[in-house]
Design a protein that fits this description.
mainly alpha
């Protein structure tokens, strides 16, 4: 029975349990670090408002001090976050490899005789390496994105609830809807690339094992042509995946600009109705764009 993606992700996340305290450290440093990064721009906007004569609650000198402090600690926190994520990732890769080799030993050579050797090599090497992306660049970044987005929604809502709701919708579109659409869009091609990669590995291993026969029957040129054909097919599949990646990036960038513009125009509208001041329009727009 084929398991869905969420079931598989749940089991993979379960492996993090022994290193949960390090994951918490990665999430906390990530959230604070990203907030520092966002508020560097926001503090710049406050400095502009202060220069224009609006009361932002801080002097110009204090704002610049905050910017310098945030910039320095942003780098430190980013380093700790990435160190924690990669520590978790490479620890778990070692555990997963051990589990795979243990399973292969139980199957023994006789059981594996009918299996494609190339796909087994892919599982042991590249497939497990890809899990590094999940553990180092997926679990904690998702948690960081959710927590940071909620904090920013509350921050923008402190100026006006309607601006906060617009930002919430924007975060949902960029952080939830777009990735799901991208996953569905490239799912078939991604599977096709994986199968072709395994087939290429099998073909190369068979060629190496049958090298004497290839030389004996003078099939070297034919084998090279077949390798070239399979390599070209891999390149075509990879090009299609890059195309889907580019489409996703375009959709994301357009969504960010769209919702930032909506907040700006809504802010101007609320300003004209005397519901918020100029400072609220500027800061809420900058907050959306920088987050």
């Amino acid at each position: 029975m084929r398991r869905n993606g969420f079931t598989i992700m749940g089991k993979m996340i379960g492996l993090v349990k022994p290193l949960f305290h390090i994951m918490i450290l990665a999430v906390l440093t990530g959230v604070v670090g990203y907030l520092f990064s966002i508020f560097i721009t926001i503090m710049g906007g406050m400095a502009i408002s202060s220069i224009l004569g609006f009361n932002v609650g801080y002097t110009l000198k204090k704002l610049f001090i905050f910017i310098i402090i945030f910039a320095v600690f942003r780098g430190v926190l980013r380093y700790i976050e990435q160190l924690s994520n990669h520590y978790i990732a490479f620890k778990l890769l070692a555990i997963i490899r051990n589990k795979v080799f243990t399973a292969l030993r139980k199957l023994c050579p006789a059981k594996l005789e009918g299996k494609e050797k190339g796909n087994l090599i892919s599982i042991i090497t590249s497939d497990i390496e890809l899990l590094e992306v999940f553990y180092a660049h997926t679990i904690s970044p998702i948690a960081i994105a959710i927590i940071t987005s909620l904090i920013m929604v509350l921050f923008i809502s402190s100026y006006n609830i309607y601006l906060g709701l617009i930002s919430l919708l924007g975060y949902i579109i960029v952080g939830f809807v777009t990735p799901i659409l991208a996953s569905k869009l490239g799912k078939e091609e991604d599977l096709n690339y994986r199968n072709e990669f395994g087939d290429m590995n099998s073909f190369l291993l068979d060629s190496l094992r049958g090298l004497d026969e290839i030389i004996q029957y003078n099939l070297g040129s034919k084998r090279l042509e077949e390798i070239k054909e399979k390599t070209d097919n891999l390149a075509i599949s990879q090009k299609k995946l890059k195309k889907y990646e580019a489409i996703t990036k375009v959709i994301t960038d357009i969504s960010v600009l769209l919702f930032s513009s909506i907040i700006l125009f809504m802010g101007i509208r609320l300003y004209r109705l005397n519901l918020i001041n100029y400072n609220a329009v500027l800061i809420s727009t900058i907050a959306m764009m920088s987050s």
